[in-house]
Design a protein that fits this description.
CATH architecture: 3-Layer(aba) Sandwich
CATH topology: Rossmann fold
Number of helices: 10
Structural class: alpha/beta
Helix content: 25-40%
Number of domains: 1
CATH superfamily: Alpha/Beta hydrolase fold, catalytic domain
Strand order of the largest sheet: 1-10-9-8-7-5-6-4-3-2
GO molecular function: hydrolase activity
InterPro entries: AB_hydrolase_1 (IPR000073), AB_hydrolase_fold (IPR029058), AB_hydrolase_sf (IPR050266), Epox_hydrolase-like (IPR000639)
Protein name: Alpha/beta hydrolase
Order of helices and strands: EEEEEEHEHHEHHHHEHEHH
Pfam family, one: Abhydrolase_6
Largest sheet: 10 strands, mixed
Shape: globular
Radius of gyration: 19 Å
Keywords: Hydrolase
Distance between the termini: 28 Å
Length: 367
């Protein structure tokens, strides 16, 4: 998601920090059973030094990587799964979608790391994260409906966040993923949060170990009790206007919308910006409009307050879409989050500064 207006994210201070602590609900999980320092329950107060990984006085029980689904959960069927890769690109092997599943790309054979792209930019946006396959992860980046490999795929729920989450859940089951770390960028963060809100707890906790968000707000619209929406001031009427423009003039809007992906005050390399615009132009304008409106209907604040899985957030220091105060507001919502800021990055830190982003992500997940 990139709408190029609003203040940039500037400022110094600690780049990687932990939020103030909050009470922890029962059955809080650890992010990485192999690393006792990863997400150790309630967060310590912020410090001015590097992120502390010292365990809390009463860390939650860890999640052992399951070797098989619990007895009460039937093993997922893979009968409809297309196993023939389309081709290899940017370090990923790409798989076409079918009538039941979105398309996806993947690299590596380790612990599942599921990366969910944002509005109007397909999973190619995670090209820089294919390198994490060399760090012990099976990196999987599906394409949502109307995007990339799934430009013609439609979930039963249509162009909605719930429909996209259904597609991701179907892929998790089809690939028999367990102990997965799910990280959503922009709109993809809402899809990840929808998994937490809409899936049965037993399903979620048997498959997903943690949920992360990249530069996203839980509520796109601003409200008296939430000044942290898009650009710090966004209304339902503006969302309707945006959707109408996307339906009519999407290809003409691509350069302007694409500019919002990059850090405030930064001109991206011409070839890289052109590549991203090409990805964006290939998306289905009708689906994009539907998704934009549905994003504007969502409010995941209560979902984050009640989360039973570890949560973490990564923000671009110079995001054009969200104000710096969003990071602190998210930390106040979540039970035991970690929050990292990627220096000199905008709304798309994984695209703009992939090495810095990857290292920050690995610190988050204990890898």
């Amino acid at each position: 998601m990139a709408v190029p207006r609003g203040p940039g994210r500037h400022g110094g201070g600690t780049r990687l920090r932990r939020s103030s602590g909050r009470a922890t609900p029962p059955r809080r999980h650890r992010l990485d059973a192999a690393n006792p320092s990863a997400l150790p329950g309630p967060a310590a107060p912020p410090s001015t030094g590097p992120l502390s990984t010292a365990p809390a006085s009463a860390p939650p029980p860890s999640i052992a990587p399951p070797s098989a689904p619990p007895p009460s959960i039937a093993p997922p069927s893979t009968a409809s799964l297309s196993t023939a890769p389309l081709h290899t690109a940017f370090g990923f092997t790409e798989h076409p979608g079918d009538a039941n599943l979105p398309g996806w790309r993947e690299a590596g054979t380790g612990r599942p790391l599921l990366l969910l792209h944002g509005w109007s930019v397909p999973g190619q946006a995670f090209t820089g994260q294919a390198a994490l396959a060399q760090r012990g992860y099976r990196v999987i980046a599906p394409d949502h409906a109307g995007h990339g490999l799934s430009v013609r795929w439609r979930p039963a729920a249509g162009g909605t966040i719930a429909g996209l989450a259904d597609g991701v859940a179907g892929l998790i089951d089809a690939l028999a993923l367990r102990d997965a770390i799910v990280v959503g960028w922009s709109m993809g963060a809402m899809v990840a949060w929808e998994l937490a809100r809409g899936r049965p707890r037993q399903w979620l906790e048997s498959r997903v170990a943690a949920i992360g968000a990249i530069d996203m707000t839980p509520r796109l619209l601003t409200a008296p009790d939430w000044p942290h929406g898009l650009h710090g001031g966004y209304t339902a009427a503006q969302a309707e206007q945006m959707a109408a423009q996307v339906r009519r003039h999407w290809h003409g809007m691509v350069p302007l919308v694409g500019a919002g992906l990059w850090a405030d005050g930064v001109e991206p390399p011409a070839h890289e910006a052109a590549r991203v615009r090409e990805w964006m132009a290939g998306c289905d304008a009708g689906v994009l409009a539907e998704l934009w409106l549905d994003m504007a209907r969502q409010d995941y604040r209560q979902t984050l307050r009640e989360a039973t899985l570890p949560l973490f957030c990564l923000y671009g220091e110079r995001s054009r879409l969200y104000r710096p105060a969003l990071a602190a507001a998210m930390a106040a919502l979540q039970p035991a989050p970690r929050v990292a800021t990627i220096p000199a990055a905008g709304h798309s830190p994984h695209l703009e500064r992939p090495q810095d982003f990857n290292e920050a992500l690995l610190r988050m997940i204990g890898g």
